[in-house]
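Hi everyone, sorry if this is the wrong subforum. Our group has a chain we'd like a structural model of before ordering constructs, and none of us has done structure prediction before. Sequence below.
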Amino acid sequence: MRFVDITELEFPVGWQARADSALAELRAEIDAAVAVTAASGGDVAAARRKAISDGLAKAARMKVWQDLGPHLAALMKRKCWYSESLNPTADKNVDHFRPKNRVAEDAAHEGYWWLAFDWRNFRYSSQWCNQRRVDKKNGSSGGKLDHFPLAPSSTRAFAEGDDLDCEDPALLDPIDPDDWKLLTFRPDGHPTPSKPAGSADHERAESSIRIYHLHCKELVDDRRIVFGRIQRLVQGLERLRPKIDDPKIRAVYKSHQVELLKAVRPDSEYSAAALAYTRAEIYTLSKGHQVRRDWLAEMLY
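Answer:
Right subforum, don't worry. Here is the predicted structure as tokens:
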């Protein structure tokens, strides 16, 4: 995960007007269903839920957020915002960060239907992260679906007009400039919290790893390859450094340097893992003592 500046999103012509219209129509349908059901003495809560579900399932309304997919994708060169995977052979989803139709953690919640057409609630996601997957062979499962856990002391918004700022999400959010820093990665490719066990940030990272399925085998295997690549680049740079007065050696050194800097660039695939692995290489053991590679630190910072 890396920070995504969603305010840089570019919109298709007329998109916001379509989104506003879709929400207004949905509100009217909910109100009408409630009025008819109340007059007949029926179950108003059930009528509301059906109106919301049916209204959001209309193809023309689904197209509102689907049409924004390519524009969301462009912000991170088509990477999944949660896993950083390109996964070119799989479809991508426009995920609703706050679920639009129901909330897995609260059966009484109708979903954040009033945010169904709000671009600030959209995240670009791979199917691995957004849809339910169970990998019995490798012992992992996950997929965001309708999950939106909150911190234990948090107050959940239940209706349009409730203050979303009172919510304290227990999931890491790629549009939060600090959240991506709460994840790091082991050399074997497994994601792990960067903060100490027992802290709220540690718990949020653990929940996100599980719910976004960041520990699935495909992602772990890819990150392990990144680790090997970073190690080879750093070792190659260290081997070449003493000889960079030679123009030919210097040219090879610079090409390695460019390759390393590309790997940690935010829009590169698995860049957060590449950055974590490169930072870990700043310190190394030499003759039983820890040595700091100042040249590598300077290259990164």
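For your construct planning: The radius of gyration is 23 Å. The chain has a mean pLDDT of 93.
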